[in-house]
Design goal:
Layout: E1 7-11, H1 14-24, E2 28-33, E3 40-45, E4 48-54, E5 62-67, E6 79-81, E7 87-92, E8 107-109, E9 118-119, E10 125-128, H2 133-136, E11 139-145, E12 149-150, E13 156-159, E14 162-169, E15 171-176, E16 183-186, E17 190-192, E18 199-204, E19 208-215, E20 220-223, E21 239-240, E22 243-244, E23 246-248, E24 255-257, E25 263-267, H3 270-273, E26 279-285, E27 294-295, E28 299-306, E29 309-313, E30 319-321, E31 326-328, E32 335-338, E33 345-351, E34 357-358
Parallel strand pairs: 1-4, 5-7
Antiparallel strand pairs: 2-3, 3-4, 6-7, 8-31, 9-10, 10-11, 11-19, 12-18, 13-20, 14-17, 14-19, 15-16, 15-18, 17-23, 21-22, 24-25, 25-26, 26-33, 27-34, 28-31, 28-33, 29-30, 29-32
Length: 361
């Protein structure tokens, strides 16, 4: 069974409309009738099929044409009106990635504050960890799927500057463009999704929880109906807009001294694979006291994964933090981690990846 769709438009002068849509917009005629006194014409092109009816009652509507070379359409005009009143907008089909300037702010988001969980893409539940998103420069989401099983996802990609998926609880099966067979992302492990890499979420454990970081906060997700994953052959060293896919595995990582005296760190190597766009570390308490420090990163986001600590920041009330809490310390602000439990573990995300930490004398 063949099904076709048409957009129906009215006309008061069919010959003028035929001339406009064929000569100015480049559509081609598919059908016209009756021959002796035409009242209906069907045109197609640019992914459109138009049925224009003489004396029709349909609204004239708005057509938007998207092209990588918009100046080659209609002589370079971007706004036109057809004889029948249909408005035409011609735009570039590549939406530019805009990275807003960061609006620095001290932020604490506590799980105990009962921030709402909202239903997002593919039925997943989202909790916003940076409510004002620092002026649109970043989004940090705590995502969960209470009931495990197949995830109703589609092959898609994101137009982003940086994106991190950190598995906090449970596990999830994923597949990525040029990265070979599907794999399981376990708790404590993470991936970065370079700009426009095609991927799909396949299956999740019960009570899966992930932390997702996206830059900028508002970015486009595009469904790719053509690509089948996994694709091949694998090309793990491929770069997407200068970034290379990373699958960081905690069991193979080395612990090193961190930028903070009270913690050891495992580097996910994300800074090295993103050309320093961002850096991601997991910090665990080592029993030493933390100093009072400041930093010069544009964005420094932390999420408490295990244990507890008290955050003391310049000009702010001290706050006790427990698992599920998140905070942002702006550049130049002095802060200190106190009363750190032995099992305290933090996820730390910085943009850019390399930055300086200073301790006043």
């Amino acid at each position: 069974m063949t099904i076709r769709s048409e957009v129906v438009l009215p006309s008061t002068n069919l010959s003028e409309d035929i001339s406009f849509f064929t000569k100015q917009l480049g559509l081609r005629m598919e059908m016209i009738y009756p021959a002796d006194d035409p009242r209906v014409v069907v045109l197609s092109g640019h992914g459109l099929r138009l049925r224009i009816e003489q004396g029709g009652s349909a609204a004239p509507g708005l057509l938007r044409l998207l092209s990588a070379t918009p100046d080659l359409i209609a002589g370079g005009a971007r706004r036109l009106t057809a004889p029948n009143g249909t408005r035409i907008e011609i735009e570039n089909n590549e939406t530019p990635l805009i990275l807003p300037e960061t609006q620095h702010k001290f932020v604490v988001r506590r799980l105990a504050d009962q921030a709402p969980w909202v239903i997002g893409r593919a039925g997943m539940q989202y909790r916003d960890l940076i409510p004002d998103r620092l002026g649109g420069s970043i989004i940090a989401s705590h995502i969960r799927i209470p009931d495990g099983g197949p995830v109703p996802d589609m092959v898609h990609y994101h137009t982003v500057g940086f994106q991190l998926i950190f598995c906090y609880r449970g596990w999830v099966d994923l597949v990525y463009e040029d990265q070979g067979a599907p794999f399981r992302l376990y708790a404590g492990n993470c991936v970065i999704q370079p700009p426009e890499i095609r991927h799909k979420v396949l299956f999740a454990s019960d009570n899966i929880e992930v932390i997702e970081i996206g830059v900028p906060a508002e970015h486009i997700t595009t469904i790719d109906h053509e690509m089948q994953l996994p694709n091949g052959p694998a090309n793990p060293k491929r770069r997407f807009s200068g970034q290379q896919f990373v699958h960081h595995r905690a069991d193979a990582a080395r612990w090193m001294p961190s930028r903070l005296a009270g913690f050891d760190s495992r580097d996910t190597t994300i800074a090295a694979h993103t050309q320093n766009v961002a850096g991601v570390h997991v910090l665990k308490a080592n029993g030493a006291p933390c100093q009072r420090v400041s930093h010069n990163a544009d964005i420094l986001f932390s999420f408490v994964m295990e244990g507890a600590m008290t955050l003391q920041a310049e000009g702010q009330q001290s706050v006790q933090l427990t698992p599920g809490d998140a905070f942002v310390i702006p550049p130049g602000m002095l802060s200190q981690y106190l009363e750190i439990s032995e099992d305290c573990e933090l996820l730390e995300v910085a943009l850019p990846g390399n930055f300086t930490t200073d301790a006043p004398q």
